[in-house]
Every structure is written in structure tokens, then in C-alpha cells.
User: What shape does this take?
Amino acid sequence: MAPKKTRMTDARPPSWAESLLRCSLSRADYEVVSGDLLEDFQEAGGDPGAAGQYRRQAIIAALRLGLARRGLIATGCFLVLAMPWLAVMALRHPPYLAHVTVAAAVAVNCLLSISAMCGLAPKSWTVVRAGLLAGGALGLYGFVANLLGSDFEGYIALIGAALVAQAILSLVATPAVRVQY
Amino acid sequence: MAGSLGTFEQAVLLSVYRLGDEAYGRAIINVSAGAAYATLARLEARGLVSSSLEEGAAERGGRARRFYRLERDGVLALSEARTLVAALWRGVRWPRRKLA
Assistant: This one.
């Protein structure tokens, strides 16, 4: 199927949807996705139905290709910074070595997930995602156990919530790939 | 082993193969851009396809097109998927009875 010749109209796609794509996607992704959506919009004649379709597609693309990746990078950065703190706090509770090992493994996996989202090591993504899901399960357990326990510790709740959020985002996000020009 | 492929991934890879030099985003598969590009990014991360950016035409405001190419691992993955489906259907009489 060759690309179809598109009928040009004077209508413009919704500006806020364009802005959403521009703000949420990388420059290369923005060009490619907004270009494809613009072609669809032009082909549909630029009527209100086409504008609605453009808005829907823009939201889905922003969520899947932009916001999920950025969310994963943000939670990854937070957890990389939080893990040394967790390891130090774990020295109050045995078994120390197990706690420190888990903190180190989570930090390494977060760094790998950040690199996959930046297009540096996308091939390892399946393994990294399995680690993020395991981390999410651990975070959920820690979060609930902390809530139900006698001593509520805010930092455990925060780290547990971040691990769960990271696991959920890993189901939606796809690794970025370096683009050849 | 190139790894297992989902049905949608097979459809995308086959479409890239069929389109040859014309395989770019919206031409490949007519679903939401988010779903198509997320799948293509996943396939590219696995080394099954590769992509390059090329200058866009006037109807897309000059914005770049990303063209995809099937890689050797992609061909292997598609071959494995095809063999698997053929093996699943081998010896099955379908439909079992004539439909009314």
C-alpha cells in the first residue's frame, strides 16, 4: 500500500492538541506523530469529526509515547536518590545485608529503566520491566505492611507508592529508540 | 530464537514487509498513532525493525516521516510465527461440520 495523496484543506487541527503533542513528546516523535495526524486530518477534510479524531489520537500518543516515559524517568530518578537513604535507614532493622542488597538492586534497575526511556539501552527493556514489576509488588507489600504496622514511617510509604507507580507506568511506556537522520 | 510475537506485532511486521520502501507510521497500520508507534518502538527495541527519519511532504506541514525496515531478526521472528501457526493447524479439519 503506497502512501495516499492527501487532499489539502485550509482547516487547522486543534491548537491545544498540537501543543499537548509538542510539550509531551521528544522533538523527533513530535514531528513524526503530529505529521501523521495532520495527514489524517487533511485526508478527512478537516471537519469537526476529523478534529475530534485528531484530539483523541493526540491524547493517546501523548500518554503512551510521552507522559508515561517521562513519568518513568521521574520516578526512576526519585528512587535512585531514595535508595541510599533507604539503605541507611535499613541499618536500624535486621537483616541488614538483605535490605541493602534489595535497595542496590532497585537503584540499578531504576538506572536501567531511565537509560531505556532515553534510548540508551532499549534492548534490555523486557528484563528491566520484569524487575520493575517485581519492585512494584515489593513496594505494594511495603506500603500495606507499613500502613497496617504499629510504627508508620512516611518514607517507606512514599518509596512504596513510587515503586507501585513505576510498575504501572512500565506497563504503558515503551523504550525510546535513537533516531537516524 | 527471535522471541514470540503477538498477533498485532505480526500484523505490523507483515505490513512493514509488504510496504517495503513506503513503510511509514500511518501507512503501516490504521490504528491510533499512539498504539502503532508504541508497538513499532517495542519492535525496534527488540531489533526486529529499524527506522530512519526523512523529510516530510507539504500535506504534513513539512514534518518528518519515520520509515521502517524489516531487519533479519524480524524476518526470523515472522518465519517462526508462521511455522507455529502452520503447525497448530496441521491435521485439523475445519470446519468440523458444514455450517448451516
Q: What stands out?
A: The two ends of chain B are 43 Å apart (CA to CA). Chain B has a mean pLDDT of 86.
